[in-house]
Amino acid sequence: MRRAAAFVLFMLVAFDAAAQTADSSINPVRDCLKRNVPKKSSVQTVHFTSFDRIGGTREFRGKILGKTMDDGTRRAKLCISQPTEMRGSEVLTMEMKDGAPQNFLYTTEFRKAKRVSGDGAGGSLFGTDFTYEDLQRFMQLNRPESTERLPDADLDGRAVYVVVSKATEAATSAYSKVKSYVDKQTCVVLKSESFEAGDRLRKVLTAKTEPMYQENGVNAPAEVEMNDVRDQTRTLVTIEDLEVDGAVDSRSFEVSELGRHCR
Length: 263
Hints:
Elements: H1 16-19, H2 27-35, E1 41-51, E2 57-68, E3 74-82, E4 90-96, E5 99-106, E6 113-116, H3 132-138, E7 145-155, E8 158-167, E9 177-183, E10 189-196, E11 200-207, E12 212-215, E13 218-221, E14 223-228, E15 233-244
């Protein structure tokens, strides 16, 4: 795999289903985002570093895999390779045609897959500031949401589309809305703001614009950072390698196969 970066090429791009209920002004944003994602699959080698409010850190490495299945739905999986005590742990999230994505967790401690639903889907992924829902958004899994395009704007000297997504069913999201800023030139989400009930800002995700890599026509920044405004914590994600549209075994995205392919 070539050295590159692509965590953000999937960020907050689950607009396909939502766009069907929005006016046509959302189409340029949707089309831009779709141009900037792999057509079939991706494998990304990632390094997570989480910082707590008193300066303590927690790190792990692994892979984020994405796959379009034979029925057209998408699935994403996070596999942990380091540290040793976490090696083999996995999170699988699967797009559903009739509702919100389903989530499954496999840990080496319990050695079986457990479905994560309800409030659990808003829980932290391995101690980071990312949740199951955040992972779904990153990996372009469609969610039951409506999307509205706001007036275009300028973000740090770059022309951006601005869109707001809201869950059509409150129980399917931990956020009241997510506001995203999409670079018109690269189609990368440069910033997102996630709000809780009462429109209180909860999380801010930002992407570095330099360096910006390109892999098979796909643009991606080298790192992104998620800041939890309420808890005063943050997580930095650095992408070390990327493979786009390579050979990825569909079987590894089955619930029954969790724990067998993540090493």
